[in-house]
């Protein structure tokens, strides 16, 4: 079963807000000067910000904020966020891989930016809604 | 300098307690656009059986990232932080983090290896309350990029 696609817009302002909230002030997430110096095309989103947005999709699919039992991803490609009002977009989809007898649902999740996968082995296990 | 594989299995002393604040959870939830009332309104969280507002699933990383400095800044292990890239991240939850929790992190190095000139470091952080109740286990794989 395929779950409904969720789309998240990401702008520079979102990265600044996430930096403050998470305590991750690595300048590659806010300074083009530093990002390009280390060989990136420009400022990139925190991997953990992408993971948080995908986590939102998972909890929304689960229909409950406390249903996630296990959640893991591999970061494969940076999400480049241009310095304009549009920013970029992350598209999240998932398939139900398994529903266990214990009432757990295992999801295979996919996240893409500009058509390219930004995560691999993204999996979540959720408790089936009560 | 390659990472020292003899560090596999090493467990560090528990960190000082992290006091989870209600406003910190609200700030984090707002930053990721998570609007579920259980992240913002204590009554909504209590209706689900929690003691106070609960945190979104990736919030524990805020706590473990700080705790992991213990490993990253261990001079004997020799991680060059300027070359570190986040590889994998995984959480296994006993329950969501809630405001009012006092969390202690115990870091263990699960795996160290070098492949293709890059170092790979897998850490496991057990996040428990000060009373010793498990809350979440957190795995991070860091890639230390080799010199080009």
Automatic annotation (TrEMBL), chain A:
Annotated ranges, domain MaoC-like: 6-102
Signal sequence interval, chain numbering: none
Entry's transmembrane regions: none
InterPro entries named among the record's database cross-references: Fatty_acid_synthase, HotDog_dom_sf, MaoC-like_dom
Family: Belongs to the enoyl-CoA hydratase/isomerase family.
Protein name: MaoC family dehydratase
UniProt organism field: Micromonospora parastrephiae
TrEMBL record, chain B:
Source organism superkingdom: Bacteria
Any Pfam family the entry gives: FAS1_DH_region
Domain FAS1-like dehydratase, residue spans: 6-137
HAMAP family linked: UPF0336 (MF_00799)
Membership in a protein family: Belongs to the UPF0336 family.
Name recorded for this polypeptide: UPF0336 protein JNW91_08455
Organism: Micromonospora parastrephiae
């Amino acid at each position: 079963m395929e779950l409904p696609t969720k789309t998240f817009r990401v702008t520079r302002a979102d990265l600044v807000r996430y930096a403050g909230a998470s305590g991750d002030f690595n300048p590659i997430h806010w300074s083009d000067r530093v990002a390009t110096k280390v060989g990136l095309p420009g400022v990139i989103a925190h991997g953990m910000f992408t993971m948080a947005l995908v986590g939102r999709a998972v909890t929304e699919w689960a229909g409950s904020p406390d249903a996630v039992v296990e959640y893991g991803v591999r970061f494969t490609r940076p999400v480049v966020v241009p310095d304009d009002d549009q920013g970029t977009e992350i598209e999240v989809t998932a398939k139900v891989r398994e529903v266990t007898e214990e009432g757990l649902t295992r999801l295979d999740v996919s996240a893409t930016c500009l058509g390219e996968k930004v995560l691999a082995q993204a999996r979540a296990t959720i408790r089936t809604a009560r | 300098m390659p990472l020292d594989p003899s560090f596999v299995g090493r467990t560090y002393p528990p960190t000082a307690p992290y006091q989870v604040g209600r406003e910190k959870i609200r700030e984090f939830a707002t930053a990721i656009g998570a609007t579920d009332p259980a992240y913002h309104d204590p009554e909504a969280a209590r209706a689900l059986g929690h003691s106070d507002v609960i945190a979104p699933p990736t919030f524990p990383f805020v706590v473990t990232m700080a705790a992991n400095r213990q490993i990253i800044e261990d001079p004997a292990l020799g991680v060059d932080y300027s070359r570190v890239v986040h590889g994998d991240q995984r959480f296994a939850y006993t329950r969501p983090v809630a405001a009012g929790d006092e969390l202690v992190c115990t870091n263990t190095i699960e795996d160290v290896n070098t492949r293709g000139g890059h170092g790979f470091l897998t850490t496991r952080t057990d996040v428990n309350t000060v009373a010793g109740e498990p809350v979440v286990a957190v795995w991070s794989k860091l890639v230390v990029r080799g010199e080009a």
